[in-house]
Amino acid sequence: MIDQMQNEREDIELLLPWYERGTLTPEEMRRVETHLAADPELRERLALIREEASETIASNERLGMPSAVAGDRLMEQIAAEASTTPNVSSSLRTWLSGLIPAGLSPGLAMAGAAAALVIFVQAVLLISLLSTNGGDRGPRLASGQETSASTGTFALIRFAENAQAKEIAGLLRSIKGTIVDGPKPGGIFKIRISDKVLPEEDRNAILSRLRENKAIVAFVAASR
Amino acid sequence: MTGSDDQELIRRIADRDQTAMSALYARHHVRLYRYLVRLIRNEAMAEELMNEVFLETWRKADKFEGRSAVSTWLMSIAHNKAVSSMRKRGEEPLDEGVAAQLADEDDTPEIAVQKRSKAEVMRACMDRLSADHREIIDLVYYHDKSVFEAAEILEIPENTVKTRMFYARKKLAEFMREAGVDRGWP
User: Fold this and answer.
1) Full domain range(s) for residue A207
2) What average pLDDT does range A184-200 have in this prediction?
3) Is A51 in contact with B34 (Cβ distance < 8 A)?
4) Where in chain B is the domain with CATH 1.10.1740.10?
5) Which of the listed residues A1, A202, A213, B5 has the most CB atoms within 10 Å of its CB?
6) In CATH, what number is assigned to the domain containing residue A208?
7) CA A186, chain centre distance (Å)
8) Where in chain B is the domain with CATH 1.10.10.10?
9) What is the tally of structural domains in chain A?
10) Cis peptide before A40 (omega within 30 of 0)
11) CB pair distance less than 8 Å for B185 and A78
């Protein structure tokens, strides 16, 4: 029991410097305070620690500052490095900012940017996935060589934030759909759901099938 | 500016934002410089190492995990650079201090104390501490680092941080006693 009390006291004494600086956790602060209230010797030690802290701060403050030249030199070096390193992130930011309407509040703009980033990632994944799907096995991004973007039946679609590229590709494949444009502002893609102009009933049936896949499709509507 | 502002600066630096880099420099360069000067005792070299720390921050901002405060991360980089620099120069970073003696050889400790105030004696005795002991005292008293943060910077266990601080203070008291100032502890 006595050993336990002695150990506890030693632990508290070790913590005194941090107690003096207020850098302990609230629980530790309370623990030290309880001991200090009951132990005059610990309070004397704390007084010594206050002197040490005060002189340490004074010694550091007297050291002055680095030269202004040092800062200039650093920033020159950084500017030189920046000019030789491609800034992919900045390009992305510029691209994202183009998706956000002017005049939005910073909060909305941030939310918009986050959504745009998700869409961008989806688009990149889609492009990479679809471009590797050769032959007639699956949907492709439209190009002048493969299809004409002006004929057929179209829809506007926004994919769910958590939709995986593979799931999106699978869904498009199931309806023989093709992405012909996008992403547009708001993360909307234009897809062709048929090479022919379908009757309204058939078109709506395909749109319904897409809507049923809520985990993949956030929004879909007919388009010209 | 708060710690979360610092984290925002680091995020922008990872995006290659030079304005954010200037802001980070403005916020931390003085303390970082002082930390290095106290550790390696060479102003020109401290300035050079300080710039190396910021340059590394610029290059590795995208690796910052946010586990600790940005200032702790900077000091951790600074600590490693300082230790490496001292080793390169053939200095033993863990050795006892080699600062000038407190008193003239002819002075008795009592006379030396009369010549200096107690505060001056303490500051001079701090200079006599080993690099390890000076560093932990500065981290705790001047840089206000918690036990956890000091452990992160020095890459040692938290218990070692506590005991190192205790022995640093004990050594300081011994030096002060040698200089004629008995603080009644240890």
Assistant:
1) 125-223
2) 80
3) no
4) 3-88
5) A213
6) 3.30.70.80
7) 18
8) 109-178
9) 2
10) no
11) no
How close is the nearest chain B Cα to the Cα of A73, in Å? 8
Q: Is the pLDDT of residue B23 over 70?
A: yes
What is the spatial distance between Cα B64 and Cα A159, in angstroms, rounded to a whole number? Answer: 32
B3-88 classified as CATH 1.10.1740.10: yes
Query: B-chain residues within 8 Å CB-CB of A48?
Result: 173, 183, 185
Pull the structure tokens for residue A206: 């395909």
pLDDT, tens digit (0-9, with 9 covering 90-100), for A10-69: 999 999 999 999 999 999 999 999 999 999 999 999 999 999 999 999 999 999 899 999
Residue A169 distance to chain B (closest CA, Å): 31
> What pLDDT was estimated at residue B96?
42
**ipTM for the whole complex:** 0.87
Question: Nearest-5° angle of CA B50, CA B51, CA B52?
Answer: 90
Among A45, A61, A77, identify where a domain stops. Answer: A61
Rounded to whole angstroms, how far apart are CA atoms B141 and B78?
Answer: 18
Query: For the domain B109-178, what is the CATH code?
Result: 1.10.10.10
Please check whether residues A129 and A45 belong to one and the same domain: no
User: pTM score, two decimals?
Assistant: 0.63
Amino acid at A214: K
pLDDT range class, residue B102, cuts 50, 70, 90: very low
Q: Which of B21, B82, B158 is nearest to A82 (CA)?
A: B21
